[in-house]
Amino acid sequence: MRYLPLTDADRTDMLRVIGAPSIDTLFADVPEAARLDGPIEGLPLHASELSVERHMAALARQNLVAGEVPFFLGCGAYRHHVPASVDHLIQRGEFLTAYTPYQPEIAQGTLQMLFEFQTQVARLLGTDVANASMYDGSTACWEAIVMARRVTRRAKAILSNGLHPHYVSVATTMAKFTGDDVHASLPELAPEGDIDALIAAIDDETSCVVVQYPDILGRIADLSALAAACQAKKALLVAVVTEPVALGVIRSPGEMGADIVVGEGQSLGVGLQFGGPYVGLFGCKEKYVRQMPGRLCGETVDAQGKRGFVLTLSTREQHIRREKATSNICTNSGLCALAFSIHMTLLGEAGLRGLAEANHLAASAATDRLAQVPGVELVTPTFFNEFTLKLSKEARPIVRELADRRILAGVSLGRLYPGVQALERGLVVAVTETATGDDVEQLAAALEEVLA
Amino acid sequence: MNAINQSGWKPEMNAVDGDAPVTTTGNRALMLEEPLIFQIGTSETTGVDLPEVPKGASRLGSLARAKPIGLPGLSEPETVRHYTRLSRQNYAIDLGLFPLGSCTMKHNPRLNERVARMPGFADIHPLQPVDTVQGALGVINELAFWLIDLTGMHGVAMSPKAGAHGELCGILCIKAALEARGEGHRKIILVPESAHGTNPATAAFAGFTVENIPATDEGRVDTEALKSRLGPDVAGVMITNPNTCGLFERDLKIISDAVHEAGGYVYCDGANFNAIVGRVRPGDLGVDAMHINLHKTFSTPHGGGGPGSGPVVLSEALSPYGPLPFTERYGDGHITLVEEETVGDRHPDSFGRMTAFHGQMGMFTRALTYILSHGADGLRQVSGDAVLNANYVLRRLEGALAAPFAKSGPCMHEALFSDDGFPAGFSTLDVAKGLIDEGFHPMTVYFPLVVHGAMLVEPTETESKAALDQFIDALGSVAERAKAGDASLKAAPHYAPRRRLDETLAARKPVLVWKEAPLVQAAE
């Protein structure tokens, strides 16, 4: 029991001070029928560090590690190289083991970092302000829909069919309970998304239009006309970015007029981690800041006039406002926000642009090679680092077969949209700076064999 | 660029304590002033060398970025120095006792960190074919088994991202169950005064109407008041046990039976599960849903405010309604992931999905590592030592500070004090700031709301007796100074990186992103 410092002598001394005969008697208020006499049955007793590490390592070895094989999965989670200093710095105990900065005088490290993060995120998304992070992109997207209802006092949210199906699923699930009226539809294996249809669908009941950029098939589209159409009907445009690296080379949604921009920040600093923890990004126009969910760090001064930072505008939050709170989020993703911010600082403007260019050009070269494979057709002519292929056969079994050959080929639309026949030949392939030319060649050669 | 003076940045140092000299840099020996990255970085600097990749033609269409983003960069040494310097302005559990009541700041074992970073867990994608991630699904499944066993429940929803998200999950299960029974008209959730503020927020967010239930003089739910409010319009109760006064709700089983009798469900806020783990199973007390903050009970680090993780254990009545995705293990050991792709008619009542992907995998590996390290015997010792430490703090300080519920029975893992007896002009906040000068993070202040000027101390089981004694001496002496009207306390902290910060200014004139003209000059 290496994590428990009390000795038996300490326990005896302390019980004497308390005036209790044993630790068990301190649980006197638990009804006797509910008290357990000894260790819960079915569970092993405590174990050494070595044996626990062995057990966990054995479980880890059962997984096919992305870094050990040609790897092309995306769809909301991307594999990028994370500089060694990022993980080193977030493991400093003063960051890793600190709590929410409720006492700002001794939490300036976390607070200044959050202020820097907010500024980096706002600039990246093209918004006036940003918060100190959300749980992840999908919950941030839902909170944006709820926020749009608060701002517009309307309940109809129109979701683009290019929005990640899990994000759609979260929004439609929550809407069943909260009374939002969410309209969603299925994408098509086509070069263009549904911008025109979205513009046509906006009416006087619309609270917001939610559009992903780049979208689930990897397509990119100009959002300016959509933003103008939303503005004309006093609806909000919510843009969702699941691959923030893209914004190193393409225009930001804020720049094109989006009112709220949310995103998944996992690409920078965080790593795949089988889906979590990730870091949600959330930015908006300044006029909506008091309707924004999540924590905010603000600049202020101390009693001697020195600059300092505090959590602020917390009267929106649930631990203060109870049933009048503006959102369900309570904690944030502070440590992942730190990792994002450090990675962004290491990259800087020049590094982010270079990384984005490397991703885009590598993905572009991959499409040139993959389109040569008989039975493969490139669906998406414009994209960032992720594109959609239409195969001559159903994609899901192909992905499984390539996994057996130790190639992780991409995400089949059959997995994301089960039972939708029109999409089952779709394969979404992401190519980041971590994929080599040889990786792409292996993928192309394997596809050639299985599609023959 | 990496030294302050070279960047041209000067901290806004106006005044210095006593006769200490004013330094050119604003630094005070090891206490270093650190500028913002926007003041020292440049758009050309980068700390990253990129790999060579194959290059195709641009396919960005008309969307290529024209304007710069405005992101400063630093080289690797400058970056390491910037964040290391910032880190030194933080208090953390690695530095000392962090007695935040209701927050459970315990030691974070480093084995957990090592395991979470094993490539087999850290470098796998959530949408890989399930046959390639059997070990990861095994972690989820094994942790789920432990959580069910430790709580005496029927099932568990692993995907909620944090405690409040877990509360929402539990409440949505209740709502879904009521609707399946054709009783969607039940709109009232009863919430005792001693509950966490997130509880009423969650219930309201899910479309329920919240009604408060008072506490008794001894700091527990007024069972009779609660029972008398039950009826056909009540969906359920949200109760925190052990409660926020640090007490065990003795009547929870009686309350649960009454709520069930009246057709409602019982939600238990499991934030304080640390106090009873291995000794009491909430399932035996009639609980239908309870979230477990993995970071609190099972030692995943708080990271300055997250990430959390909030699995929700469910009773047999609520389990069918839990969210996607979840794992299922077959007799041959193969584990499937039940999500939209595979759910079919095997789990038709699931209320849906709460988050993309499968939850906080990085927290699951840490929590499972911690649970296996402690085992069934160790976890029982965890709750025992946590409660012993809290009662020790309560008994040794009840002379120095008012302890409103000290006569209500042993406290659980946290000890509640109040500012009763302080002279006019002195408050709980002054004690908190005074404690900072003593080198401790303050306890939770002004919570729970049932007590005026509350101070909630949670030492946790990972503190030694020597650490507790030092903290008790410090808090006791600061309390005595407050009671004596020591004016120097009003200006505390004196020795922190910052003196008392102006939170009103921050709220009145919010500055949320960096702008060229710093607020400090605008204020002058």
Q: Biggest sheet of chain A: strands side by side, in what order?
A: 1-7-6-5-4-2-3
**Got a strand count of chain B?**
12
The major β-sheet of chain A equals: 7 strands, mixed
Q: How would you spell out the order of helices and strands of chain B?
A: HHHHHHEHEHEHEHEEHEEEHEHEEHHH
Description:
- The complex is a heterodimer of chains A (452) and B (524).
- Chain A is an alpha/beta fold and 452 residues long.
- Helices cover 37% and strands 13% of the residues of chain A.
- Chain A is built from 14 helices and 13 strands.
- Chain A has helices at residues 8-18, 49-61, 84-90, 93-96, 108-125, 137-152, 165-178, 195-201, 224-232, 318-321, 334-370, 395-404, 413-416, 437-451; strands at 129-130, 156-159, 181-183, 206-212, 236-241, 260-264, 280-284, 297-301, 307-311, 376-378, 386-391, 411-412, 426-430.
- Chain A has a 7-stranded mixed sheet with strand order 1-7-6-5-4-2-3, sandwiched between helices. In chain A, strands 10-11-13-12 form a 4-stranded antiparallel sheet. In chain A, strands 8-9 form a two-stranded antiparallel ribbon.
- In chain A, helix 6 packs across helix 7 (165-178) and helix 11 (334-370) crosses helix 14.
- Chain A is globular and about 80 Å long.
- The mean pLDDT of chain A is 96.
- Chain B is an alpha/beta fold.
- In chain B, 33% of the residues lie in helices and 9% in strands.
- Chain B has 16 helices and 12 strands.
- Chain B has helices spanning 4-7, 37-40, 76-87, 110-116, 119-122, 134-151, 163-180, 198-205, 223-229, 252-261, 294-297, 361-397, 428-437, 465-483, 503-508, 519-522; strands at 155-157, 188-192, 209-213, 234-240, 265-269, 289-291, 312-314, 326-329, 335-338, 415-417, 444-445, 455-457.
- Chain B starts with a helix and ends with a helix.
- At the A-B interface, helix 1, helix 2, helix 3, helix 4 and helix 5 of A face helix 3, helix 4, helix 5, helix 6 and helix 7 of B.
